[in-house]
Amino acid sequence: MANKEVEMGLMGEEDDGSLEGRAKYQPVSGFSTTSVFARTPIKSTDGYEILMFQERSVFVFIFVLYALISPLVFRYGMGSNLKPVQSPKDFKRMTNATMEIFADWHDCITCRDVIGVTLKNITVTVKNVTSPNPESNTPSLALFASQDLTYWYSIFKPRKFQRAFIDNWSYSKFMAFNNSGVGCLGGVYHNYILACMNTLNLADELELGEKIRDPPMNDRCFQMVGLCGIPCVDSTIGEDVKYFKGCDDGVLNLDMITSNATETYDNGEFTSIWGDGINWVEWIVLATIFLDCFGNILRYLPVMSGRPTELESARSCLCEGISVLGCASPFVSEDEAIFLRSLIGRTATVFHTVGGRHNLQGLYFDTIVNEKRLKGEANRKHLWLSWLEFITLIARIGSEGEIEEVEVEDDGFIYEDAHPDESGGEVGQKNPLTRQNTNASAGGRARAGTINQVPENLRANTNIQAASTMTYLPSKPVSNSGVGTLRVNNDEVVNFDKRMRNSEYHRGSIGGGDGRMSMGGRKSIVNNDGKGGGLRMVNIPRSGPNGEEGNVGNLEWNEDMFEEREIAPFDQEEDLVFDMADLLPLICFLDGWLEAIKDREWTFNYLKKREGIEQIFNVAPLEVYFNDADLLMAHNCLKNLFDAFVGLLPDDEDDKVPMFAEKYDEINWIVERRGLPDWTITWSLFSRARLRPFTLKALGNPPKPHPHFECTRIKPGAIVFKMPDPDLPPHDAPENFLAARSYTYIVKEFQRSAEGTECVCLPWPPLSEDDDAYRENVAEIIPLAELGLVEQNRGKAGALNVYKELLRTKASQFVAEQNIYVPVQVFMGIIDARHMLAEPEIFWNDALPFFARDRQSGKSAKDYGESTTTQQCIMVQYPQFFSNVNRDDFLDNKNSAYYTIWQTLRDCSKCITSSGTNAIWEITDPTFTFATTSRIEDTGTSQNYIPKYIAVHLPCFVAFGIAKQTEDYIEAVYRWSTGAVELFWATVTSPAISHHVLVGILAFIFLLACFKSSGFWYALWVMVFIFGTLQASSDKANGRRPLRRPIVSTTIVMNTMYWISNLLSTIWMVLIPIRIAFYSEVPLSESLQRSLFWGFAALIIRTPPAMLTDRLVNMCRFLSLKTDDWNYAMVLWRSSQLYSCSFAYSLLSIITGTGNAFKAKFRDKDLTMWSSFRVSDAVMKQAWSKVSSASCCSGAWWGAIGAFIKLKFKKFLASFTMPDVLTKWYSLFLFLLQVTCIFVSMNLTNASDTTAIFITLMVCGLNLLLCIDITVLLLPSITLIIGRPARPEYIFAFLGLTVVVSALVNGDTTAQEWHEIAKLDLW
User: Residue 289 pLDDT > 90, yes or no?
Assistant: First the structure.
């Protein structure tokens, strides 16, 4: 890191392996921040290179097309609503001419028995004509006839063209029908004649009898006059003849066919108005699809930066130097079974790190961190000491005597002295240090990890060859490597096959004559009673080399059986020294126990503490790794450990004090390796200081300022400590650090001085209520810069920050004690309590190469595409894996889509986000701190450091977690969402808002390219892509990772704003079904052309992301061997299911997170701490027991019943803020809504529209598939209706029943029809 005080060097190695006389580290010129060096660079395998080239090529091509074509889909949706072109009807006022019409009236002889009239010699006279449009043609005459004033037809066609035009502007006379009639006016219809003066030459353009446009007529006639006839009536009726509608004494009433309003008509052409006809619902749908599309562009952008990390590539790198490794496991309220499995995995990891392939020396600081106080603290210490006693005694059992060398004939554990061998060996061939057929997979794809170089001192004294030092084999279902390797010293390397420990076959004794290493040479005897005898053990189950069952055979032990020797008892105050070779029985036993747990853990019941503990102990393979007296001694140790975990645990003592100072215990082991650097292992238990809120009355009503028990900055009333003097000797740094934090003050006030701000502090808490120092205000003035808050943050981040400081003090102490005159890199691993390290050889050994630098050049051992030395790795993250989750993971407890697919995607740009646990951070820089601006410290810390440093994702499941129960998991995803909201507000109110500004600019350009009619904005979006391509080329040419800086911004924005996507799930799950079913409107389907938007959206907006995800899945299958046979489609489906029901807890998280963020900003609220939402059943049961035990109607009874009712009411109110309760009822609402929409659509709104019914069934049916599993999980009683499990068959059966019931209720099919259907079709 960028710390000028940090230098690095390489510790020289002497043959005697001692610390005395070793050469000091020599700093590397120009590069002074690394003490872990790489002898060889990290190189990828050939298969990786080929696959990544193929997949990334396809990925980049699809991504570019998607980003450039997707705006066109939105542009089509905006302009696809075609409508006929409307021409204006220019209704002219009739003031520019005078018309008269004359006709001869005759009886209508064709009417036969009715009376009627006919017209002959129709003459039209026009006077004082003024053309309404001087540029148009000369006005002409046209005659129209109609029977009902609605449909009009042309009845005049001049024989000569000129006859239709006026011949004199002052007076013209037209003889339309000379000596001829127009037929009978009358009959059974109304009849009208209209003379139209126009400028369009209508009479000549229209054929006789041709239908014309409907009225109003003054859109084409600037003057009109009309006649109307009396209809024919039956002459026998004798009634008075009446004029019909619009006919006044034979003259047509022109008001019936004219208008002065402005209207339009279709002229046969079509046009598209941009964004026309889009209502508010459709705008919401478009906005949702737009955000989804833009989010996909941001999500998949990292692949443009590079390739993801290959785990096997780390195997090509050997590190050397010195480092301090700290592994912290924060515990809160986890039980003994979880604690035990954590200890097993952590301890195995310690030894495989110390004995790993790297040539390192250092301090391994393994720590259990108690986050809370008085909640299992004493119990956990008791169990921790019992565990250390167990491993100490097991180590001592194998620490005396010589190891008998035996010939290896089959798979299993191998240990032998290695000698130089010029013949070498290859993977898959038989040689002394590898398996036969080691490249044969035990249930997966076999891939050999290659070490191209071996440390010279190791290669010179062993027969380890470049390709046969380690063989990496996948093993199902849990083991990631088939062969393990342990370097016990400079001359001896142990390889053992872990696959055999996954089955019952391995349960034969190593010394049982089956060709495995014999521990019989280590003579031992249990000194149980102080006299060396008295132990009797009967019928220890075991099996022979061929798998047959057997037993030790009523083994009776007396003092004459073996040579007597004593095993020193465990002393928790004693630091121990072990040779690595002497620890082999312990290491092998822990490995075997770990493998047995991994193989069977999915069957363990951790919900019942006692049962889980027994299941863990039942698979302990003592008889595999010990025999004879050693077996009996080891069994006795294991029995004592079992008694400690299931026995009566010590009670936690409550001292009734407002503050608990740090408690720290440690035991040190020095592990010596002949010819190799030594390691110091510090086993520690750390309980951080906690403030306990007390009332003022309980504190004795102290004077002001009153203490602040929750405070994130120093102010009057804050509880602080004085930081230790940095000039104190580093040998006592941890003691000084803990001592300083144990002596606390309360800040009384601030005062200014020439030296700066100072605080007036009083000792706190008072020793008693009469503490004179406190009462008399005996104050101490301390500079503000020298003070620190005792408990700045109460949550996990606060505990990690305190532990980080303790780890640094331990590193300083170690460096001073070892006479190392250059600073050393410090790494901090985080393994949460519910996670058991399951791959002890991988966790540290495969992560350290990514932090290492080349000793000569100072460049990273891994080529990250960054040529600058300041760009170095700050974090390596392994994915999470949960062993107790089956395929019915409806809530996506595994979160596999994120831990595998999306983390692999972000790893392409090396800007991944920490998952909290299974992470390794480099904390050498004294300014490093875990983020406290939200309750998700992992995301916040990543966001702070990925702009400057590299973060790597290694696709290997190194730890097995225990997934939370349903309610707890929903609270967890709610917590993550709330933390994202808190982090969003913290980001936008800080300089980090620049990331949001950059992404906002891109979003704005993309928005305009999608929704603005001007092609300029789409061209601008294309230019952005061209600029990005040029920038990527420039980055590559200048030794920078392409586009990493904008990708970091997109990662930060998506981490802090993904809750918006969860809110928009209601558009698909609620709004669209209601719109279709209740309003008979499919969004964006106003016209046939616009409805094609959905087709283009499915093809261009949704299909490419699916194809891109498939490319990522192919990468994940290759990179993470355990996922070869994973159903990734199911992984993504589970993620979609949780998304469909995420609205309720996401909305609650926005409300809570926004409120918390402003409280943190203005009221110094601690955001790292949260509490449960529910009133526990145990509390309710306890309250009711008080009611039951009190005498009825007594004072105590009334008090107890009042307290019980109060708890009930509190529980009821709390349910409205409980994410699991809200999610339960919201999922039920979604289920009932889809059913209701189907029923309404089929019977009411869309009963006669088959297409609408089909769309309803399709949309609501898919929504049912998404939400029904979660509904069933949270409301099991609903299975009485739909069955369990809720498979698709049940869903479609339910839909079918809904259709049948709807048809019956609707009444479209009568009972008689149903009877006929049954008779004809069924029988």
Answer: yes
CA 654 from chain center: how many Å? 41
Rounded distance, CA 10 to CA 365, Å? 21
- Residue 169's pLDDT is what? 60
* CA angle (1264, 1267, 1268) in 5-degree steps: 70
**Would you put residue 186 in left (φ > 0), alpha (ψ -120 to 50) or beta?**
left
Q: How many whole angstroms separate alpha carbon 1215 and alpha carbon 381?
A: 36
The SS3 of residue 889 is coil
d(CA 976, CA 1149): 9
1070 CB contacts (<8 Å, ≥6 apart)? Answer: 1230, 1233
pLDDT band at residue 869 under the 50/70/90 scheme? low
Give the dihedral sign, CA 927/929/932/934.
Answer: positive
Check: CB of residue 839 under 8 Å from CB of residue 472.
no
> Which pLDDT does position 844 carry in this prediction?
93
Q: 1103-1119 and 1128-1140 are packed helices; what angle lies between their axes, rounded to 10 degrees?
A: 130
Instruction: Give first-to-last CA distance, the chain, whole Å.
Output: 83
Residue for token pair 């928790």: 572
Q: Does residue 846 surpass a pLDDT of 50?
A: yes
pLDDT-derived band of residue 1020, with 50, 70 and 90 as boundaries? very high
pLDDT one-digit tens code per residue, 151-168: 888 888 876 545 556 555
The rounded distance, in Å, linking the Cα atoms of 56 and 85 is: 49
User: At CA 605, angle to CA 603 and CA 606, rounded to 5?
Assistant: 130
Cα–Cα distances in angstroms (integers) from residue 49 to residues 57, 315, 439, 591, 957, in the given order:
12, 16, 21, 34, 23
Please state whether the predicted TM-score (pTM) of the whole model is above 0.85.
Answer: no
What pLDDT, on the 0 to 100 scale, is given for residue 828? Answer: 95
Residue 1220's beta-bridge partner residues? none
Mean pLDDT of 782-810: 91
* Structure tokens belonging to residue 1198: 């009334």
Question: Which one-letter amino acid corresponds to residue 1249?
Answer: D
HEC sequence for 747-773: EEEEEEECCEEEEEEEEECCCCCCCHH
DSSP state of 229: -
Cβ-based neighbours of 1010, under 8 Å, separated by 6 or more = 70, 71, 74, 75, 78, 290
Q: Distance (Å, rounded) from C-alpha 1212 to C-alpha 1214?
A: 5
